[in-house]
Known about the structure:
65% of the residues lie in helices and 4% in strands. The protein is mainly alpha-helical. A two-stranded antiparallel ribbon has the order 1-2. A hairpin with a 4-residue loop joins strand 1 and strand 2. The model is unreliable at 1-19 (pLDDT under 50).
Amino acid sequence: MKNLIIALLICGYFSGAVSGQPIKKDTNLIKEITAMFKDDQFWRKKYMKSNKNGKSDYDAETIQKKWASSDSINELKAKAVVNKYGYPGYTLVGKSSDTFFWIIQHCDDDITFQERVLALMKTEVAKNNASKENYAYLVDRVLVNKHQKQIYGTQVRFDTVTRKSAPFPLKYPKSVNKLRKKMGLEPLEAYLKSFG
């Protein structure tokens, strides 16, 4: 009986490893992603603060340089993560999977890399191991970066004529809310209101 229990435990361990399902979350990778996201957000927040009230601890030129540098470093780190793990899903890093998505979203200077991650992410979404909402955002980001019409309307710009936020051109404007709902996104009108 004791040997049977040990055999079952060993079999369970190896079947988990073979199926690609980690036995436990990678705490070191979670810490790395958390640090990357902190860097990702730091200069964006400084920029927003500066634009909102004109006050900041840094001048505009410093913010832009540091922001670009931070994104470049994060992109290199993200590529290393993807090369080693593929897209880090929930089973590997928990909610840090969603955090990692934002790093990829900001790798705009390498659309090929974003497309690679998009393909990997699609597989994880199909297994409920990554966010389909985030997947929709990245689909749109890649399309907009390639100067194509987006599907879900997640990529928004400020329209200087109407003085309102508006989505970049849509491929299917009449069915955008149906497509958004399928991906777990709120209606486009509500989403645009959130931009103020």
